[in-house]
């Protein structure tokens, strides 16, 4: 005699309810565990895979004189890549170039630095164009990392006669620094086969001919922030600039598809860099309280998480579990590494972030009842 599930449940309705509850609760939990396990595994960097991807290639890293950018440049040099570093301050750039050079595997790797203000399109276009005529050539990967956070309450960041608002300066620091490098690379591609501009060398796809597209990098990698998926008090100007960047990256990823250019974005949480030290001087106490003190990564570790994510084929790369869960919640039109697990985890994520938002509200109201800032 066979076992009949329907008959078993119709004679024991309470068991059916318990079974349904177990399924309803277990599926999101399994989904969540799956999402986190897959995220953790994608952050393991296999040095051989990185070497295979970048050895003998030329990689441009912006904001590479300090912090995360410098750590990425050193990791790439260790893996056999030639690296071009862009940043403004000459002294820090010279120091970084010498540190990156001392990490190379082979003497023929080119390590060079250019002092460029990435928020100024003309300067960026000139610097990228000069690479075309240089031995290094145009880059195989572009890593748009330059940026800075200027936390504070918006009421303290309004424009004055002496200076623009933080909304403006943050857009310059975090959005234009990235969009300018992409536009400068596209301009260099167009200039590489100028006759194509009037359609003489074949049809245009995404504004470029096939000949011009040969100069496109294989990858654009953007350093955004946890603040592009989770925003709160004290980060209105910064979060807006990184959200703008995320929108740009989501769109340009699809725009570059016809020429098979890969796009990735990194959403790091706090890293122990010079930039973070500057940020701390401006940060309201309530902002620091909500952020919490935990999980501060060294830039060298954060650089490995980024490169592991790139090599392991992740589009959005997070170096913090909560940020990965926030990414799943607001993924939008980007690819999902684990579609079924992410769908299964969604009800639990809604619960987690609703609770988080209620706790944050309580923290803010309690803080300002007791203190002024
Ligand atoms: N540290 C964190 O906790 C954290 C968290 C999330 C996201 N991030 C993001 O990660 C990236 C790197 O941050 P970090 O902490 O490593 O910063 P950092 O230590 O201050 O280094 C920033 C680098 O960018 C360069 N830079 C800044 N503005 C530039 C401009 N307009 N033109 C050219 N170069 C410019 C800086 O050099 P010059 O000033 O000499 O130009 C420096 O080389 C940024 O996009 C940041 O928003 C950081």
From TrEMBL:
Pfam families: adh_short (PF00106). GO terms for cellular component: endoplasmic reticulum membrane. GO terms for biological process: 3-keto-sphinganine metabolic process; sphingolipid biosynthetic process. Keywords: Membrane, NADP, Transmembrane, Transmembrane helix. One of its GO terms (molecular function) is 3-dehydrosphinganine reductase activity. The chain crosses the membrane at residues 16-42, 220-238, 339-359. It comes from the Eukaryota. This is 3-dehydrosphinganine reductase. It comes from Rhizophlyctis rosea. The gene is TSC10.
């Amino acid at each position: 005699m066979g076992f009949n599930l329907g008959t078993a449940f119709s004679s024991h309705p309470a068991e059916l309810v318990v079974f349904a509850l177990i399924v309803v609760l277990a599926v999101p939990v399994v989904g969540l565990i799956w999402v986190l396990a897959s995220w953790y595994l994608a952050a393991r960097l296999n040095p051989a895979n990185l070497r295979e991807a970048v050895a003998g290639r030329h990689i441009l890293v912006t904001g590479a004189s300090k912090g995360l950018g410098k750590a990425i440049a050193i990791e790439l040099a260790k893996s056999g890549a030639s690296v071009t570093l862009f940043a403004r301050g000459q002294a820090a750039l010279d120091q970084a170039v010498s540190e990156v050079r001392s990490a190379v595997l082979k003497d023929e790797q080119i390590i060079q630095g250019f002092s460029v203000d990435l928020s100024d399109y003309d300067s960026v276009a000139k610097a990228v164009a000069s690479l075309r005529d240089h031995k290094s050539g145009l880059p195989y990967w572009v890593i748009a990392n330059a940026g800075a956070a200027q936390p504070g309450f918006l009421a303290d960041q309004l424009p004055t006669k002496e200076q623009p608002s933080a909304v403006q300066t943050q857009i310059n620091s975090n959005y234009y620094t990235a969009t300018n490098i992409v536009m400068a690379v596209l301009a260099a591609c167009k200039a590489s086969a100028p006759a194509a501009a009037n359609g003489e060398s074949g049809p245009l796809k995404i504004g470029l001919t096939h000949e011009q597209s040969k100069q496109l990098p294989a990858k654009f990698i953007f350093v955004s922030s946890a603040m592009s998926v989770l925003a709160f008090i004290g980060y209105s100007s910064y979060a807006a600039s990184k959200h703008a960047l995320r929108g740009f990256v989501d769109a340009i990823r699809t725009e570059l598809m016809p020429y098979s250019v890969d796009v990735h974005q990194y959403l790091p949480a706090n890293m122990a860099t010079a930039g973070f030290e500057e940020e701390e001087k401006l940060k309201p106490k309530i902002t620091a309280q909500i952020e919490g003190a935990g999980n501060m990564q060294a830039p060298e570790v954060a650089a490995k998480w980024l490169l592991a994510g790139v090599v392991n084929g992740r589009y959005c790369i997070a170096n913090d579990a909560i940020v990965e869960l926030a990414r799943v919640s607001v993924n939008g039109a980007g690819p999902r590494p684990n579609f079924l697990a992410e769908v299964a985890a969604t009800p639990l994520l809604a619960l987690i972030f609703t609770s988080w938002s209620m706790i944050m509200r309580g923290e803010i109201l309690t803080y300002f009842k007791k203190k002024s800032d």
